[in-house]
Amino acid sequence: MSHRLIMHVDMNAFFAAVEQQSNPALRGQPVAVVGSQQRTIILTASYEARNFGVKTGMTLFEARQKCPQLQLVAANNRLYTHVSRQIIQIFQAYTPLVEVFSIDEAFLDVSGSLKIFGSVQRIAYLIKSRIKARLGLTCSVGVAPNKLLAKLASEMQKPDGLTFIQPDTIGAVLENLPIGELCGIGRSTEGKLNALGVFTCGQLGRFSATILKARFGVVGARLKLMGQGVDASAVIPPEQEAAVKTVGHSMTLQRDISERSAIARFLLQLAEMVGRRARRHGVLGKTVTLTLRYPDFTTFSRQQVQAEAISRSEDIYRAGLRILDALILEQPIRLLGVRLSNLQHWDRQLLLLPEERRRQQLSESLDQINDRHGEFSVMSAGLLNVKGKGSHVISPAWRPQGIKNVSFS
């Protein structure tokens, strides 16, 4: 075989589709999934809602103007991750090389699977039909010689599409394609390239590498290759992923808050989340970062380096509280985030003092209960007064296993 066969599978309107399958009354109806019923943005919309112009990122006011009969459903992250794990298991039945790109999409290297299943077309058909039969969901599949083009192909026919980009058609596909259609070229980079007179992938592939390097640094060379449809990156299963550098969680609050006690209660909740996930994966961190956002979307972060690496929730909370107490807030708070970084794996042998071992054992016992019965089944007494848990939006970096599962935003 002269080239790889990479498949990108993208679930169609995933959150909304899962809700419609879970609740038959929602099927065929315009549905939008939101972080909370009171204040958030549209996380995803069913295709029925999209036909009215409802889009991801819209405010509820904008969405209801487009579609007055829109039915809102609060996000159920536990349900989505459960379904996502089932989808991943289906992928793994056809290749061990599965890279979960987000909760609703993944890359599959099926180059070595043809001897078993016969053709990439048959593999794509089997995956699509099995997901539909087992879960009632549809997906769009792109197949190409690399991840960049497979991702592009999966976007070309939605919903329920299947698109192939053959090696001998790459030039024709990319020639007049706007550069913003490529995964990895965001609005900022697109604007800078447009300023250089580069608007299509064909133009980008022919553009001066010297100028691109001068303008974008080492990224410039990759941009030129992207314009040519070249991508040598491998499909990396979770067990081969490099460890992430931070463990974090943030939430958009249901209302703007300015009282220190109210902010502290949400800070405690975030510290519990971050600490539990850090402990689950055996990491400690020396740097605690607090992120805040005002109603006008001004966002800023402050951090504090600890004398010793920590993972206990109360230690993270106290560090965050010290950062908060050093701030003079100019406006109420719309978003709050906590992040633990400068990570290291911890060694149980380092817990020499009986008190340290007792605290660690207590944390592990509480973690096991929450793992079994759900987030905050057992919690600090301070959390009992938190009314409304913010807007729990699942991270695009969600993974079913491995350290990346701890980094939410």
Give the structure's gist in a few sentences.
It is built from 15 helices and twelve strands. It has helices spanning about 15-20, 45-50, 60-65, 75-90, 115, 120-135, 145-155, 170-175, 185-195, 200-205, 210-215, 220-225, 260-280, 315-325, 355-375; strands at about 5-10, 30-35, 40-45, 70-75, 100, 105-110, 140-145, 160-165, 245-255, 285-295, 300-310, 335-345.
SSE inventory with pairings:
Layout: E1 6-11, H1 14-22, E2 31-34, E3 42-45, H2 47-50, H3 60-66, E4 71-74, H4 77-92, E5 98-102, E6 105-109, H5 114-117, H6 120-135, E7 139-144, H7 147-154, E8 162-164, H8 170-175, H9 187-195, H10 201-206, H11 209-216, H12 219-227, E9 246-257, H13 260-280, E10 283-293, E11 299-310, H14 313-325, E12 333-345, H15 354-373
Parallel strand pairs: 2-4, 7-8
Antiparallel strand pairs: 1-6, 1-7, 2-3, 5-6, 9-12, 10-11, 10-12
Structure notes:
It is a single chain. This protein has 15 helices and twelve strands. By secondary structure, the chain is of the alpha+beta class. The chain has three domains: 139 residues, 3-Layer(aba) Sandwich (MutS, DNA mismatch repair protein, domain I); 59 residues, 5' to 3' exonuclease, C-terminal subdomain (DNA polymerase, domain 1), CATH 1.10.150; 165 residues, 2-Layer Sandwich (Dna Ligase, domain 1). The strands form three sheets. A five-stranded mixed sheet has the order 5-6-1-7-8. It has a four-stranded antiparallel sheet with strand order 9-12-10-11, with helices on one face. Strand 2 and strand 3 form a beta hairpin. Helix 4 packs antiparallel against helix 6 and helix 11 packs across helix 12. It is globular. 36% of the residues are buried.
